[in-house]
Amino acid sequence: MRISEVSKRYGRGPLVLDRVTLDIAPGSFVCLLGASGCGKSTLLNLIAGLDTPSSGHIDRPSEGTAVMFQESSLMPWLSARRNVELALRLRGVPRTERRSTALELLDSVNLAEAADKRPHELSGGMRQRVALARALAQDKPVLLMDEPFAALDAITRDLLHDELERVWRATGRTIVFVTHNVREAARLGERIVLLGSRPGRVVQEWRTGMTSKRGIGAGGIEALAAEITTRLRTEIRRNAA
User: Fold this and answer.
1) Which among 78, 80, 71 is positioned nearest to 122, based on CA atoms?
2) Are residues 37 and 109 both part of a single domain?
3) Closest alpha carbon to 227 in 33, 24, 17
4) Which of 98, 162, 180, 207 qualifies as a FRET site for 232, CA 20 to 30 Å off?
5) What range(s) does the ABC transporter domain occupy (predicted)?
């Protein structure tokens, strides 16, 4: 997937994104990091095709993309399984296959035992797992995630980091993950792209060469997070000046 010189402006307002260019390799895990208001979510919406660039071009897979947002947005009257089945139905999966496929997807996020529970019976982390299973049900090569764990407590978020990394390695999907949390980016991304603000543009990248499971306490992660934090603070001070 290639993002070529993409800029975005709403009406006569200020430029939100300024000539962003990124090449995203198939199967990679890219974190888009930056302070609030730097255009991360705008860029994700452009990649998803939910909005159009003011200039520039985005080459995305012909199969399209799946999107997971901060809110799980599950249908409250449907069970976890039926929420996933809904995505399968919209994809055109035959009725006879939907139940078993939905259960397999819920099992892939370690939630098969909660298949018959409705969203109000699930914790916030469990609801996000259902949302992830539903996104995977769309069977798109690219998964776009807009701060999906931002509203969760630190322990639940860390557990979901493990789940997401496991799913990513098992499925080989390309993941573009938006966050303003430096440690989250250092924990998850094999490539971290820092966006500056006013307007949003790529100011620095880091490649972690992630080849094995990593936790926040793993060697090098804290040092990377500290380095990124220093660079981010420089950008925030520059924009505040």
Assistant:
1) 80
2) no
3) 33
4) 162
5) 1-222
How far CA 110 is from CA of 105, 129, 137, 162, 167, in Å, comes to: 9, 8, 15, 11, 10
Burial class (CB in 10 A: 0-12, 13-18, 19+), 6: buried
Q: For strand 15-23 and strand 174-179, is the pairing parallel, antiparallel, or unpaired?
A: unpaired
> Could you tell me if 19 and 117 lie in one domain?
no
Return the half-sphere exposure (C-beta side, CA atoms, 13 A cut-off) of residue 238: 15
β-pairing, 191-196 vs 29-33, is: parallel
Q: What three-state secondary structure class fits 193?
A: strand
Do 52 and 148 lie in a common domain? yes
Do strands 55-59 and 2-9 pair parallel, antiparallel, or not at all (unpaired)?
antiparallel
pTM of the model: 0.92
Kindly list the strands in the beta sheet with 55-59, ordered across the sheet, starting from the edge strand earlier in the chain: 15-23, 2-9, 55-59
Per the structure, the complete domain to which residue 57 belongs is given by: 2-64+141-240
The pLDDT tens digits of the residues spanning 141-188 come to 999 999 999 889 989 999 999 999 999 999 999 999 999 999 999 999
Q: Do residues 49 and 125 touch, judged by C-beta distance below 8 A?
A: no
Same domain? For 56 and 146 the reply is yes
